[in-house]
Write a structure and sequence with these properties.
heterodimer; A: alpha/beta; Rossmann fold; 2 domains; five-stranded parallel sheet; four-stranded mixed sheet; 8 helices; about 20% strand; disordered N terminus; B: about 475 residues; alpha+beta; Heat Shock Protein 90; five-stranded mixed sheet
Amino acid sequence: MPSPDTWTSPTLAADQIARMAMRILIIEDDRDAADYLVKAFREVGHVADMATDGEEGLGLALEARHDVLIVDRMLPKRDGLSIIGALREKAIDVPVLILSALGQVDDRVKGLRAGGDDYLAKPYAFSELLARVEVLARRRPGPNEETVYRIGDLALDRLSHEVTRGGTEILLQPREFRLLEYLMKHAGQVVTRTMLLENVWDYHFDPQTNVIDVHISRLRSKIDKGFARPLLHTIRGAGYMVRDAKGA
Amino acid sequence: MISLLSDSAAVFWRSMTALGKLVRTTAFKLSFAYLLVFALFAGALLVYFAWTTRALVTSQIAQTVEAEITGLAEQYRQAGIRRLVLIVDTRSRRPGSSLYLVTTATGEALAGNVGSLPPGTLERTGLTEITYHRPDEADESREALVRVFRLENGFRLLVGRDLEERERLHNIITTAGHWSIALVIVLGLVGGFFITRRVLKRVDAMTATTQTIMAGNFGGRLPVAGTGDEFDRLADNLNVMLARIEALMRGLEEVSDNIAHDLKTPLTRLRNHAEEALRTATNEAAYRDALVNTIEESDGLIRTFNALLMIARAESGHTRETFETFDATEIVRDICELYEPLAEENGLRLKVITDTALPVRGNRELVSQALSNLMDNAIKYAAPCSHGDNERAIAISATGQEGKALVAVADSGPGIPAEDRMRATERFVRLESSRTKPGSGLGLSLVAAVARLHDGELQLADNNPGLVATIVLPLAPRAEP
């Protein structure tokens, strides 16, 4: 994909990102796919366990040792949605990402209604799954979330909708504000294009063109242009990330 | 011989099962129940009729007897026993059903036409039914209604009427009753049989058709007699259902055909590239390129596949369960907001024209996606060829017209020639002019499928130059929230 950026854009490779290790449980009946995921997560520094049927998966999940669950919908012995139901009944609110071949709008709605926190249709890119899982694992919203997000000298006030960088006010369109808000909320984490489309625009389809990239490049020109240290980074082959170069 | 026997047994059993089938039908059971009710009713009516006739005849006889006895008693009082005997004697000789008897106090007959009476008859004074014998036929007993009157000086006068007439009338009525009940039963059974057979014949015809349909002849339809009766209504409804099923089946077949034909092409390409890389690549970079290429190809495949599934699902009408009422102008504004930077980057200006709220009932996500497809197309094909030409625009509008919401995307690109417009919405049709641009060839068919799902349509027209693609959706009734 050609970079839409018109000047030196800060681009990072996906493996240049420092990660906090997390423990992931993968419940997936296709052993090949599960093995692949376990290996891929280990490569980026996470710990992954796997279960290949619903009962085993629920047993492991009930131990509540994991930061995130990745659950396939169609599983032998016990289907994915009923695993989530059983966990929620026992007040185990570990974030769950549903991974399913059923990817239509109503399937997603059904999955989220059953208590899933995110829904990803198969087949998927690992970078997409990784980004979503990391966002989920860190999500745990505290009772009073901070009202001002700060990254470096960039500040975003969620109540007054004021954005400043180095004390200078930056004027943003409402949608640009929401885009930056989402990126800053997940500062230090990779955010993919589909995640932005889902969370900022509330669309769950995949436009054929690079609409999101153009929005990002506009936002970038407003918050990074003219500043020595770029904050909005493109993560090659994955998405975008807001972070201070010295670490968010 | 044995085979003959078993043959006739088979015929017997076949006819028995046919009869059993007939007897088990609802029509037969109903006619039988009605027959029973009518027979009982007719029977009760006839019994009542017979009894009241009998009572009427009896009371008439009694009145006649009473009048005659009063008259005779009067004669006796005025002219004495001699005169009475004379009158009775005369009357007794007349042919008819009247009975007379005058006796002394000791029971000796003085005049009359009664042979013998049951003992004690002369002691009872009221109206009584008795059996008697005529003097000339000693062994034939007859029924009569008589009254005995005590005259002065101990004489007894008996006047009566033979009841033969009444019994004959009773018999006639009873016989008629039996016959008519028998007739009711026979007619009822025959009628029931024919009605049942007619019903059964139509049901059998329907069953036969459904069996051929189940066997795979999806074009089959139930016979409609054209009489507008309940069977026709049922058949009409089932035929509509069958047409729908046929359409769904055809859609399914088409989808699988398309998957077979059109996914194989990119799969073959993917495989060829991989093989080529294995054969010719010499360094890591070449392998890497091949792998990147493979992933790109498979992403394209997935997109095509998803679009196909979505079209199939939209066409099945399944998603209707998730319908809600939303404002079409809002969708237009949201999509424009999403595409505005991209259009600008491509040197295109977006012109947005929206009416006031246009409530539409449907799936917001699908309509947004359809509109986004139109925008993708407009930007893809309307992008300026040279950088000098910078006053190109895409006009997006949402307007209400005669109970319909028209969501239109108009570009000034090459457009679609009139003769190709019908084909443009078919699956996988990529017009010659667009072969060089990326895309699955499913964009417009997806838009058309979404429009149809919402009971609307996709219209393509000339924008002089360019293309106007209009999604026509029915407006939701205002009353809805």
